[in-house]
Design a protein that fits this description.
Layout lengths: L12 H14 L12 E5 L6 H13 L7 H8 L6 E4 L8 H10 L10 E5 L7 H12 L5 E7 L7 H4 L3 E4 L5 H12 L3 H10 L4 H9 L1 H16 L3 H38 L12 H42 L11 H10 L2 H17 L6 H14 L5
Helix pairs in contact: 1-2, 2-3, 4-5, 7-8, 7-9, 8-9, 9-10, 10-11, 10-12, 11-12, 11-15, 12-13, 12-14, 14-15
Length: 389
């Protein structure tokens, strides 16, 4: 088999080997009596490729002999394969109704492939009650149904679910590995690719944006400039609003890109040419998609603020490394002078307090704390860390 189905999973050779072996085993006579099982959990940090691996695995399971067929992979990428069901909620939590519908769909026999594959992205978003609905399906699965769950870590799921899945763990790839992908796949210049990979902290999707989108790079620069300039409480309060504006702009840009691509894929799957009229009987499909996109936009602001906070974590991480003379490569090498100046002007204990404040702001966002308040509290702590004590 060509490796193109797994090409973007940089630095994940062990995980790729595991699912490829399982897919081949699943198509042996007897239905997979070796390394194949009916339920899988793919874990890894954001940007490591959890969903990419899940869909590559699904495509292999839905192809003959466990070797990915390009036509099947195209159907999986478009989410149109008749034996693939996907739960990718845009809400903060996955609802019990969504899981019940998916569990109901899992009871059907495969229509064209050997298996029916159920993919749950962000399985960590399920409450305990919702998880228990999924648990019952994992305890008594139909013979030809395979579940593939994705989550940041095993600890994000109930122990009872963890005991019923086989875990495939993804690691954080090295920046050089991500940069090599950007050069080979996107034609990015090597220096730009490496800087983007470092500043994205090896998050492949974010590295791609930073390497190919000038406005995304400028928004990141604005984020760091605002935070480093907030050296008094009044500046911190004003800076919080500016950071929120940056997050809104980033979220809007990202959602517009996704929405346009999603609409184009939907029209193509309906056989409607670009600019063509949508048949009345299919308009409800687009209407539902647009409603989903509105929900995604609502959640997108929180994600945008979180991206801002992740960037700021990297800055104060670099400050702490400079203070401790750790000898590790900085994430923000282009800001080395400013980072060294801040490191010299503050103490490691104060830097740790800022890192804690940023982490606390990230925890507050899912708890429905207004983003502006979370940002203000964080930046005020950062400003006070520079004051003599």
């Amino acid at each position: 088999m060509s490796d193109t189905a797994y090409a973007e999973l940089v630095g994940q050779a062990a995980a790729v080997d595991a699912v490829r072996a399982a897919a081949r085993d699943a198509h042996r006579p007897g239905g997979g009596v070796g390394v194949m099982t009916h339920a899988w959990l793919i874990t890894g940090p954001p940007g490591s490729g959890r969903s990419n691996l899940a869909y590559a695995f699904a495509a292999a399971l839905l192809s003959e002999h466990g070797e990915t067929d390009p036509g099947v992979r195209a159907q999986v990428d478009a989410r149109t394969h008749p034996d693939l069901a996907v739960l990718a909620s845009e809400r903060v939590t996955i609802t019990i109704e969504e899981v019940r519908r998916l569990v109901g769909a899992s009871q059907y026999s495969p229509s064209v492939a050997r298996y029916r594959v159920m993919v749950v992205e962000d399985a960590d978003r399920m409450t305990e009650r919702t998880s228990n609905v999924l648990l019952k399906a994992l305890e008594e699965p139909p013979e030809r149904t395979v579940w593939i769950l994705c989550a940041p870590s095993e600890a994000d799921l109930l122990p009872t679910i963890r005991s019923r899945v086989r875990v495939v763990r993804l690691r954080v790839p090295e920046p050089q590995e991500v940069a090599r992908l950007l050069v080979q796949r996107d034609g990015v210049e090597e220096g730009v690719a490496l800087r983007a990979a470092e500043e994205a902290q090896s998050h492949i999707g974010m590295a791609h944006r930073l390497a190919t989108d000038t406005e995304a790079r400028e928004r990141r620069e604005d984020t760091i400039r605002i935070a480093l300039g907030a050296d008094t409480v009044p500046k911190a309060v004003r800076g919080a609003q500016r950071l929120l504006d940056v997050a809104k702009a980033d979220s809007t840009a990202l959602n517009q890109e996704r929405d346009a691509a999603e609409r184009a894929r939907a029209l193509a799957s309906m056989g409607v040419p670009e600019g063509g009229a949508v048949p009345p009987q299919l308009r409800h499909v687009l209407k539902q998609m647009e409603e989903d996109q509105k929900r995604r936009a609502t959640r997108g602001l929180r994600d945008g603020v979180d991206r801002v906070l992740v960037d700021l974590l990297s800055v104060w991480r670099d400050v702490l490394l400079a203070q401790l003379d750790a000898g590790l490569a900085p994430v923000n090498a282009a800001r080395s002078d400013e980072i060294r100046a801040l490191a010299a002007a503050t103490r490691p204990q104060a830097t740790l307090e800022v890192l804690d404040a940023i982490a606390e702001a990230r925890r507050r966002l899912p708890a429905n704390v207004p983003p502006l308040l979370a940002l203000e509290a964080m930046l005020v702590t950062a400003a006070l860390s520079r004051s003599p004590r």
